Amino acid sequence: MSSRSRMSEDVWLAERPRLLSLAYRILGSWHDAEDVVSQVWLRSADRTDVANAPAWLTTVTTRLAIDQGRRLKALREEYIGPWLPEPVATELLPEESAVQRESLHLGLLRLMEELSPEDRAVVVLREAFDVPYAEIADCVGKSLQACRQVVSRAKQRLPRVTHAPERDERLMAALVTALAAGDMAAAVELLSEGCVLWTDSGGATKAARRPVIGADKVARFLIGVSAAVPGSSADPVNVNGAPAFRLKWPGGTRIVVLEHDGENISGMQIHSNPHKLEFAL
């Protein structure tokens, strides 16, 4: 093997975690991110004319992820019930800075689904990886000014997620206690007035097929489900760099992720599609 080939392999192994993280942020699916990065590897295998390997790998990964994102967006229109980004156990994620890790929060990834694949790629490259606008423009085929506008609009629409593990854990523990006791008042007290609950099952498990909206309705739904499923248990886990909890029910395992407004629980994601929990359990 030539020194050029060995260097290419070394660069690939060093860059692969970053490429996975990039593709996952654009797609919201670790499984699809792995598929994209595998395609990048196949395309890079025969290349010996790349002057800047990291930049080339970033461009190819981004473009393939955008193409895959377009296909997935069409498929998700046929998905049964709400589609939520796949949770990934924090231990499986690449090492990143605290600022980068914020952009992996499932609450933010859920909101990112509102963006087109192209705009999502622009935001990810700029906000998560600090790629210069000129390089982003070349990567996605937009003008530099258009890329700046995409990021500006996204910042207005998407809240900045800050990590407060102790607060998250406190809210989770209090909610689990309230549900176990069937205490409606205590549960409502933890929820914001406009709290929204999404359940992602893809039709594989019994779940609400539409979002549940409002503190009273969410609390009533959760207490009703808890009462109807005796013998369940809740264990703390960490996904996407933030605390969550795993519900073990006779009918299967759920991952529950909380979104909050700084004080109360403003959103709740219940992930119960077993095909999307492979990397979280």
Automatic annotation (TrEMBL):
Top-level taxonomic group: Bacteria
Enumerate the spans annotated as RNA polymerase sigma factor 70 region 4 type domain: 108-158
Extract the Pfam families matched here.
Sigma70_r2, Sigma70_r4_2
Q: Which terms under GO biological process does the entry name?
A: DNA-templated transcription initiation
Mind listing the GO molecular function terms for this protein? DNA binding; sigma factor activity
UniProt keyword annotations, A-Z? Sigma factor, Transcription, Transcription regulation
Annotated ranges, domain RNA polymerase sigma-70 region? 15-73
The family assignment reads: Belongs to the sigma-70 factor family. ECF subfamily.
Record's subunit section: Interacts transiently with the RNA polymerase catalytic core formed by RpoA, RpoB, RpoC and RpoZ (2 alpha, 1 beta, 1 beta' and 1 omega subunit) to form the RNA polymerase holoenzyme that can initiate transcription.
**Name of the molecule in the record:** Sigma-70 family RNA polymerase sigma factor
Q: Which organism is it from?
A: Kocuria soli
